[in-house]
From TrEMBL:
Keyword Transmembrane helix attached: no
Compositional bias segments (type: Basic and acidic residues): 10-20
Name this protein carries in UniProt: ABC transporter substrate-binding protein
Record-annotated Fe/B12 periplasmic-binding domain positions: 70-239
Main location: other
Region called Disordered, residue ranges: 1-20
InterPro entries: ABC_transptr_periplasmic_BD, Bact_iron-sidero_bind
Keyword Transport found: yes
Keywords of this entry: Signal, Transport
Family membership: Belongs to the bacterial solute-binding protein 8 family.
Family matches, as PANTHER family: FERRIC ENTEROBACTIN-BINDING PERIPLASMIC PROTEIN FEPB (PTHR30532:SF24), IRON III DICITRATE-BINDING PERIPLASMIC PROTEIN (PTHR30532)
Signal peptide residues on this chain, from the entry's feature table: none
Taxonomic superkingdom: Bacteria
């Protein structure tokens, strides 16, 4: 919100972030930038995480057009000097809990907050899907978003997915990230707000066996194939091995033959519109397999 000539927003750490004027030049973590774009706000520039390379990851960008959008680097390669030289009014980052800025080195995050107003929003496992949406909607409104959140579009997509998931013999869904030709990371649905939301809507999610790893269970492809998923949500980010690298593995080929493979972005934008698109994608996959 604005007060006089200043702007203030309390982030998910409980920190009141204050800017001298209403922020118009906003630099964001790519997921946050994609979210604000869905609200009608274009960021000045973006930065990525340690998982990213020199170029922004299109899978993380959602509908955010990357052409002509400035990137200030990713992870340990974040160019703070270039970021400061761009003179942003505000930086929007995300956290996976504990208030720690995700995606960049702690010293860089500390340095950033010493020089610029920073808002940090929590997208971690302790935040429900709708809570992530609500917080980004509040930030977008405070930044002067031109329109309302796509609540009707989301409600329609939720109702559709709930209906498809309730059908007899509905497909079983496994979410994973390909580590390489020999192994995979199987997602634990309770650790992911988007997967928990699918479960709440009735989608039959496969939860891997207990073992090491809070968010993922590392397995070889034979163990993944033995779960016999009907639909696979496959991590489409640049840090995941693409399907073409897996084709030499017989167990992956067996999964491909049995299941419908659907690209999945574990860092989905936190907007009503993006979540509606996600639900529609899953509903399409469930319907196609039936």
């Amino acid at each position: 919100m604005s007060s006089g000539n200043s702007w203030e927003f309390t982030d998910d750490r409980g920190h009141p972030t204050v800017a001298r004027d209403h922020p118009e030049r906003v630099v964001t973590y790519i997921q946050a930038g994609a979210t604000l774009w869905d609200h009608g706000l274009r960021p000045l520039g973006i930065f990525g995480s340690h998982h990213d390379g020199d170029d922004p990851d299109p899978a993380k960008a959602g509908e955010l057009p990357l052409a002509g959008l400035r990137s200030f680097g990713a992870g340990g390669s974040l160019d703070l000097d270039a970021l400061y030289a761009a003179e942003p009014d505000l930086v929007v980052a995300v956290s996976y809990g504990g208030g720690q800025v995700y995606g960049i080195d702690p010293e860089a995050a500390k340095h950033l907050e010493e020089h610029l107003p920073v808002v940090v929003l929590d997208v971690g496992k302790d935040r429900p899907f709708e809570g992530i949406r609500d917080r980004f909607s509040a930030l977008a409104a405070a930044l002067g978003a031109p329109g309302e959140p796509a609540t009707r579009e989301l409600a329609r997509a939720e109702a559709r997915l709930r209906d498809v998931a309730a059908r007899p013999d509905a497909p079983r869904v496994l979410a994973l990230s390909a580590a390489g030709p020999d192994s995979a990371y199987l997602a634990r649905p309770p650790a992911w707000p988007d997967l928990r939301a699918l479960g709440d809507l009735g989608v039959g999610l496969i939860d891997p066996a207990e073992g090491a790893g809070a968010n993922w269970r590392t397995v070889d492809w034979s163990e993944a194939a033995a779960l016999e998923p009907d639909v696979v949500l496959a991590d489409a980010r640049a840090n995941a091995a693409p399907p073409i690298r897996l084709r030499g593995n017989a167990d992956w080929r067996a999964i491909e033959e049995r299941a419908r493979i659907v690209p999945w972005n574990p860092e989905i934008p936190g907007s009503h519109r993006a979540h509606a698109r996600f639900y529609d994608t899953v509903a399409d996959a469930l319907s196609a397999h039936a």
